[in-house]
Amino acid sequence: MSARAQAVSGPPVTLEIVAAVFHGVAVSDAVAVLVVEQRDGVPRVGWSNEQVATLLGYGPEDLRAVAVEQLLPTLGGGELKLLLRRERTVHMTLPVRCASGALLECVVAAVPVPPPAGRRWTLRVTSTATEAERALRATADAHERRFATLTERSPVPTLLSEQGMRLAHVNDAFCALVGRQAEQLLGTGWLDAVHPDDLETVVEQAITVLEGGDREAQARLVRQDGSERSTVIRFAHVFTPGAGAGFIGTIEDITDRLAFEARLAHQANHDPLTGLPNRTLLSEHVAARFRPGAGGLACIFLDLDNFKVVNDSLGHTVGDALLVEVADRLRATVRPGDLVARFGGDEFVVVCQQVSEDGAVALAERIGEALHRPLTLAGVELHPRASVGVTVQTAEHAAAEELIRDCDIAMYQAKAGGKGRVTVLDAEARAQARDKLRLVADLREAIGRREITLMYQPIFSTADGSAVAVESLARWQHPERGAIPPGTFVPLAEESGLVSALGLLVLDETCRQLAEWDRRLGDRAPQRANVNVSALQLDVNLPGHVRSALQRHGLPARRLSIEITESALMTDPATARAVLLDLRELGVQVSIDDFGTGYSSLAYLRRLPVDCLKVDRSFVAELADGHAEITSAVIALARSLGLSTVAEGVETQEQADELARLGATYLQGFSLAAPLSGADAAAWFAGTRTATPTDTPDLELT
Fold this sequence. Notes:
The protein is 42% helix and 24% strand. The chain is of the alpha+beta class. It folds into four domains: 115 residues, PAS domain (Beta-Lactamase); 107 residues, 2-Layer Sandwich (Beta-Lactamase); 154 residues, 2-Layer Sandwich (Alpha-Beta Plaits), CATH 3.30.70; 245 residues, EAL domain (TIM Barrel, Alpha-Beta Barrel). The strands form five sheets. Strands 18-19-21-22-23-24-25-26 form an eight-stranded mixed beta barrel, surrounded by six helices. A five-stranded antiparallel β-sheet has the order 2-1-5-4-3. A five-stranded antiparallel β-sheet has the order 7-6-10-9-8, with helices on both faces. The longest helix has 23 residues. 32% of the residues are buried.
């Protein structure tokens, strides 16, 4: 058969023309053509041109002998026969499988080759994508490339899984984070970088994300060099058509943040000088181990003896060095698992578990011996000693803080017993301490309810025997314990921080009573009231409190005299002088109480703005024995400085006469007038305004 007859059934053509057409089809970049032939009953590709390979992504020889069903996967069973017809050309729009596995929507035209060529067809494949679609595809490809570039160069470590746990992409930041190359991490290699202890958590969260949703996991990543980084991995679900479910993971490196937080936590709970746990951590430690009714938990409280001497004589730097040395010795002496804490200042606490009282005492003694070993600081050899209190938990301890409080009490008992001792808090001491705490609570309530009452003891002038003033004296009638002496509750108020509230109560009540006497008695009312002030009240706030009390009750300042003990003035003479000057500027008088019993400097006395010296009752009592030297000297000293005097504790007429002869300005004592309530004082002043010491025999001693 001629070439013309084999090629077409139309007008005759030469073989040269047929060859030219075949060559044009073979190299065409506009028409994708392949030839299908039946082999062993299966249609396979016998030939294809370059455009087919370009369109579907195959190599030049990849399509040869490929079954047509693989290229056209939607034509299963007998549907392929509908395309490969012998009778006519057939056009179908079908998805054609590309080399990547993706399906490309195309129009396929199957042209049967005329006989006697056998069972052959030429398939012309044309993509259905329009120019606009191709433009959109190009734009999408550009976006994908930009996204890939952004991801790869992002400083945020990123993972991308297109299907399951296998990674398809990691960016440079993640590679840098774990110190590995991308090739080592793709697939499931990234799991090797997860710390073995955290791997299960990470896998669980990733599997959950594959099913949808977002998750995060805190995990350590192990670098190639073995170092670790703490991270938070945040997984987000992604789905890739044709691939399946995967995830995107972004990693936050929190190593530095955790380290910073750890430093802050350590600083908050540790003493910066010694590195020991501080008071806060001590409380938490004891509370975490305290079980009511259980035993075996012990606290050992240490206070260095004479530490102030070291600070004052060698300086605070040496004092700090001593504290550091003590901390080191404590760490080296306690048992493994025991806690050593710095309670504050030169105080330390050791907490032990599973220990008997004998065991705790033995440990306390070992600590004492360790501390007492000599050391040299600033060229001086020191032998540190500590007073040590020991408490072991008993059934009576209801809370953890009671355990620390009791060993604190035991330490004070040890210090009071002569320092350098170990004392175990016994039941009696614990009962006394708790009773004291209850009394403090009662005192606080009594002050708040103004149940602290005042008595007023008249003060007489030796010039005319008239009662010119009163001294306010605080009294506490406890509802269950009866009268509590001032010598008990005033120091208690000072120890417990209640003395300021107590002092303000006395000041206010005195001013109120003076105002009330003025309304009832007129010019027969006491012209002045003396109020005692604690050393702890002697601060810059005192003048303001006095001014407020006077204004609140409409009194002039001359109606008030503030009494301050000699020892209180000498505690801080500079501050005391400044406060007294402010009081004097208000117009308030100032007296030094119990003069002669302290250690005041006469030079300071001359500089202090005071109006009166009160001669202590102990010197007045010596008059009965014929010893008038000190009383006489004090009165003479006051007179030489232009000050008045009040002789306290006048018990006999002979004492009154002698004091008047020595030149005392005023007298005060039970033999003259006992302390009176406000109402009784009103009645007394109403009837004795002009009374003299010798005119008051009706006042019985109380």
